[in-house]
Amino acid sequence: MTSSTTVRTPLRLYGRGSELAALEALLGRLWTGRGGALVVAAPPGQGRTALLRQAVARHAARCPDAVLDVTAAPAEQRLPHSGLHALLCSAPGPLPLPPEQVLRSGSVPAVLPGLLRELARYRPLLVCVDDAHRWDGASRAALAFAARRLGADSGVAVLISTADETEFAGLPVLRPGPLDDDAASAVLDRFTRGADHVEPAVRGELVREAAGNPSLLAGLLARLTPGQLAGRTPLSYPLPGAESVLQAHAALLDGLSPQTWTVLLLAAAAAEHEPDGIGSDAALVLRAGVRAGLDADLVERVLLDPAATARALQHTGERVHFRHPLLRRAVLHRALPTHRRAAHDMLADLLAGAGAPSLPELVQRACAAPGHDEALARQLAAGAVAPVPHAGRASALARAATLTVDGTRRGTRFAAAAEQARLAGDADRARALLARVHGPGPASGHGGASAPDPAPVRGPAPAHHRASAHGPAQCVRGLLLLRDGPVADAREALLTAAALLLPHDPPGALEALLGAAEAAWAAGDAPAYLDVMRRVPPTAADPALARHGAGMCAVLGGRTAEGHALLRRNLDAARSDGAPAELLRAVVAALVLGEVDTACRTGARALAAVRSTGPDVLLPKALEHLAHAELRAGRHARARAHATEGLQAARRTGQPNTAAHLHAVLALVASVEGDAAACTAHGDAALAGAGPHGLLQAATLATWARARTELSRGRPADAAARLAPLVRPGPRRGHFATRMLAVPCYVEAAVLRGRADAGPGGARPAPADGAAEAVAEFALWADRSADPQAPAQLARCRALLAPPDEAAARYEEALAHHDRAGGDFERARTQLLYGQWLRRRRRTREARGPLRDALVSFERCAARTWAERAGGELRAAGEAVDAGPAAQETPLATLTPQQHRIARYVAEGVTNREVAVRLSVSPRTVDHHLRNVFAALGVRSRMELARLLGR
């Protein structure tokens, strides 16, 4: 083995792209003879050392024996200049001056820069100091002085890692933040050598608990057994393995006075009853400090002056925050259990009022409890109600569960906490709480005494006790699957939950049934949807819900008039102040009826209700419903804005299934606006999520979007091939509620494809395969629907299939319907097809009017590709269309409009036959024009034409 094969490649760093780029820039300057300095400042465990190891390995591979590399030794922190001595001793060769002589000099800071320049005389030198905050003060000052004095052409790069950057002020600073969830998950995969055996709930809990700290994640993983990783053995709480990282954070505060530590402990404890990230109430901490016997001025000074606490605290308005969440946990971890419980008790006393205990007071009592306390658990569970946010309710219920002795009751409370976490949009937290439903009794408090194990149960538990824990947990599990798993699995889980809940919790059973119905709808399984909705009790407490279920069953069962009447009653009864779930059902009903304007108005009210009262988990769904309604109404820009926001909300709340539907909506918007790249990207994203999870509705919409883009670009054969399986009978048939929307596109594509074999002029194309059957089914749907565009689209489809003596009247009928319905895009498509038909019939002068109107309408709704297509048809009809000043300077300015179009298509690689299909002319006509193009431009081949037009 050669020496080169023994060099170890640094481990891959995840989520550190910008940090590695900054290091690479520093090394790049160093390798060109320049210099520089960079301070990597981050809390312990955040990856500072890994970044420095990466830089050292990169430089050593290029410039061996050109690195001064040292890690601080905390034991030598009190020895003056011990850090510099260790650094100089790490030199790979002899120094111009021995380390002892350098340190005996009168002014070490003045000598150090010259010494480093001397070492870099023959090769670029990298000086790397890890954990510089653990050096002695004299060494830190000398290193900072040298880093500032070394010039840009010194050939020396100084790289420093520290948890406290204040002594290196004036130097460039790189601050690596916490890893995002994707990067943390990738690190977990690396540590576990593949993630197949890590149960998703365990993965989510580890990522959440690590808070983006890779060292903490490694510590947690090291203490888990294979059974715990796989989810076969329950996790223990609090999770072990964080001790070393928390101790390193606490060590940053060494040297503070006991009084300051007391204030820090009170501030850390006071944040326990607050939402995550909001910090502590400064006034409450001040009152607690005074009650603890501290001087009020001292407490106030500690709270207001960051230097008094080694910059651990930050004061913002009336709140006090820890600089880093792990620093707060470190303060609680270092405190003695008795001191910690005393702080919580003191805060609880200050929060107590004259009436019933408030939830903040109860949370502090729970943190102070040394073990199980059923009475306190009951109070916490009773306090977890509105107006407390869902996240706060989840925390209160989880604390109540940890205080509960009885195993079944504890599981029920963990299930209730999981449901509240789900409603708060925290899917990972919900899964972690579900995993504790059947787990052992965890320790309460912050590392305090373990709660006593529940008494063993002799014999099987009664059925109602089992249902009380299993039913809610199964319901939450099914609702989570509905948003991020296979919807068929979600339906079965929710049906099982409904059966468990029905005898003891009818409202819970009803919620499970509605979730199962939504899963069947997303899967496009109409029989399963009907089966679930028929199980909804007809005497439900909510009459609107009963009408909705009966109406949907009637529509899908073929009793259209009866179903529409029931659904319309619900629309009329929908109140502006209705519950978000009720308003969202009204949006669905309006879309089924085809009343798209009503759907838009109701969708806007539903979105406002969700933003106002929650729950957060419904925000992506509300935005999806509204965007879909706006898309149906032709308001494409609004649909794009709401779908984009919904996509961000779906990612934030862990709802990939909803994200797939929103990608499909965005693909449809892009197919209107003519952005082929965006349509492809969103369509692929929708199909990638729809396939594994069985989301037929999302797949149908995404396929329709891709086909419409093909149609806008003059590729009717490709569009027809995509749409034919969706709109015609067969195993690949599209979603029952959305497939009819794609029929007009299919008919247009099939007819235009059929013209490929037609002769020039007005010869009638061959009949489009399956188009007539699709139109007949569309006619039945349009007759039952109130969709304002349906009559116009039906007339357009009939015009495409009509003989020449009837087509014009059909097109005029379609335009009359458009005048009543509104909507620029669909009207423009009809005008474009009408103009094409007139031009093919040699009625060029008449064609210009519809084509001109189509061009203006497409431009009004920002349908760029469609506008280009209309402009090309208008030029072919003999009317000049402004192509912009740049186009006037190209060789194409010498061509006729028809030659211009043919040249562009041929340059893109389109065959003569495909050009004939796009332009509705014969292949012989294309050949004739192409010969003239070659002669006019002076080219001899298609390749030369492509190069000319490319320039």
TrEMBL record:
Entries under Pfam families matching the protein: AAA_16 (PF13191), GerE (PF00196)
Gene3D superfamilies per UniProt: P-loop containing nucleotide triphosphate hydrolases, Tetratricopeptide repeat domain, Winged helix-like DNA-binding domain superfamily/Winged helix DNA-binding domain
Q: Entry's InterPro entries?
A: AAA_16 (IPR041664), P-loop_NTPase (IPR027417), Sig_transdc_resp-reg_C-effctor (IPR016032), TPR-like_helical_dom_sf (IPR011990), Tscrpt_reg_LuxR_C (IPR000792), WalR-like (IPR039420), WH-like_DNA-bd_sf (IPR036388)
TM spans (from-to): none
Where would I find the HTH luxR-type domain in this sequence? 888-951
Question: Which keywords has UniProt assigned to this entry?
Answer: DNA-binding
Q: Looking at the record's lineage, which domain of life comes first?
A: Bacteria
Q: Where is this region: Disordered?
A: 437-470
Q: Which PANTHER family match?
A: TRANSCRIPTIONAL REGULATORY PROTEIN DESR, TWO-COMPONENT RESPONSE REGULATOR
Q: What is this protein called?
A: AAA family ATPase
